[in-house]
Amino acid sequence: MNSWETEWFERRSQITPNNTAIVDKQTGVSWTYRQVHDRVERLAAAMQHWGIIKGDRVALLAPNGLCYIELLFACSRVGAILVPLNWRLSTLELTYILEDCSYRIVFYSEELEALVADVHLDRRICLQSESYLEACACDQTAIVDQTREARDPLLMIYTGGTTGKPKGVVLSHRSIYANAANTIISWGLTEKDITITFLPMFHTGGINALSLPVLLAGGCVIVEREFEAVGAVHLLESSRCTVVLMVPTMYHLLIQTKSFSESAFSHMRAFISGGALAHLRSMMHLRLKSYRSKKVTG
């Protein structure tokens, strides 16, 4: 039986259809929840036309962008499993992962054409191709897989393989929804929240830790392809960002800039840190808190 765990994006799109859901920083293009939902429906219908069925692995090789969100929820509609790929890996590493996950089709960004060509994929579709763009724009609706269950897999993210070959970690509809719901509770997220996703969306930190929770809450996710400290400070300020997740190395670079010391971050509620030892995370929080206090009282 379908439920909030398998249909939450569709339901969120009905609740706040006109709220801005995604903003692509590189192009400046934004999409409302209704617009993203419509793209998802059309893409899901196209995927069914391309022969994608429940259980199929759909790989994605691309920098941060709307494609991660629309492909994830299109896979959800047809019962497929999204496998985001680390585009920083070597040809050999990517070949292993694609063989291991038994991919059915690979969607890729044209800027990674050379890498894709080296991997020798059997079936691939460029995100900038006419077929993909038409799929997202045509007037068609997906036939939703009525056998979807909350325990069915939706996302497979590969580990770094530091002690061996990478392993695909399978996340179900339920686990993704539960993580998003608990993150909303933990940080008090609402539809007024705005976040910027600097972390790569092929990693759980980029897509699962804050992007999906903010979308479940009805907020806005700005996707950025690259991190540069001074530019990040300006973007946090100009976008009126309220909550952001970065790793300590990024915070180290951030607080060393003159822009950081001159910025008030008047809309920011929380700087969230992850990916380091507990004492380092605490140190970063204290330094950021100190800067915030000086801005408020100074």
Q: What gap, in angstroms, lies between the N and C termini?
A: 56 Å
Mean pLDDT, to the nearest integer, reads 89
Strand content: 15-25%
Note the overall shape: globular
Give me the Rg, rounded: 19 Å
Can you summarize the main beta sheet?
A: 4 strands, mixed
Strand order of the largest sheet: 2-1-10-9
Report the uncertain regions: 294-298
Estimated helix fraction? 40-55%
Strand and helix order:
HEEHEHEHEHEHEEHEHHEHEHHEH
Number of strands: 12
Structure class? alpha/beta
**Helix count, DSSP H or I runs of 4 or more residues:** 13
Describe the structure.
The chain is of the alpha/beta class and 298 residues long. It has helices at residues 4-15, 33-49, 66-78, 91-101, 113-119, 130-137, 173-187, 204-207, 211-217, 229-238, 248-255, 258-262, 278-297; strands spanning 20-24, 30-32, 57-61, 81-84, 103-108, 124-126, 153-158, 168-172, 194-197, 220-223, 243-246, 270-273. Helix content is 46%, strand content 18%. Helix 1 crosses helix 2, helix 2 packs across helix 6 and helix 4 (91-101) crosses helix 5. The N and C termini lie far apart (56 Å).
